[in-house]
Amino acid sequence: MPFGRFAEQFVESRRLALNRCIQKIVNHAQLAMDPDLQLFLESDSFALDIKHRSRDSDRGGIMATIGNTITGPKFYETDEWFDKKKGYLDALESQLKGLAKAFEAVAKQRAETLPVIGELAEALSVLGSSDLSKQLSSSLTSLAELERKSKDVMEQHTKHDLETILGTVDEYLRMISSVRLAFTSRQKLFYAWKAAEAEMTRVRSTHEKTLRQRGMDRQSILPLQREIESADSKAHDARSEFEKSTKLIKAEVARFEHERVMEFKAALEAFLDGMIDQQNEVIEAWEGYQQVLLKRVGPATAQAN
Fold first, then answer.
1. Lowest mean pLDDT: which of 85-99, 122-136, 167-181, 189-203?
2. Is 200 a residue whose pLDDT tops 90?
3. How many Cα atoms within 13 Å fall on the side-chain side of residue 178?
4. pTM of the predicted protein model
5. Does residue 118 lie in a domain region?
6. Is the pLDDT of residue 249 over 50?
7. Which CATH number characterizes residue 104's domain?
8. Residue 2's closest CA among 116, 110, 97, 115?
């Protein structure tokens, strides 16, 4: 996690990440109606309420899916689309981690540079207040103010990075984990479907054996038929749920890819604009300082002549 070593930035990054996460959820037509989201937004005692909420796993909200694991035989994917997307997610995750690491290195360098700039500004300020010529003292004091401004601009740019490109990178690293969780949930539905089919086969086989072993009147056969119909219905419903999840995941991954392109484009533009603004501020400050020096040097040169 970028800025993981620096407590203030860590807390701020988590706050921003939570805000972005909530915005994405409430902007999603289906997730916005999730009971867990409503509980999180409306509860005055969330820490207590969620403990009771977590015991009710049958309600199937967002938080009820967290921590679920799948047990059963190894799953062999039969849809080539999912295999391709798994490879795509692995590559994307690797690239984003590399990008996050690079920005973390820059952030660390800035964090180490900022105190040095502050110390330089303080030293220049002390020199400016010492018993020197009025012109030199004034120049040193102005230079100290310039260094303080440079420090402030760098701090603002660091925060801006956290809100734009770094926040987007961290957000999509987490979303990749969510996509993988969705893939895993689909496997769970597959196992449920196959278990329902196996139960349907068992019920049919058992009833066929029963019918062969002894003759039965119509009244005795009806309960057996209803049991078979129930098993068939459960198997059909389980298959429908699996197929529905497959279509939904494909649609949501397409949405994920579209939003990723648009959001990274916007984040990169904001990052570059912020960098340009930072450089312009520093350049303007130095140009202003240069003009001050030239004005002071002019009269001094005239007096010398």
1. 122-136
2. yes
3. 14
4. 0.73
5. yes
6. yes
7. 1.20.1270.60
8. 97
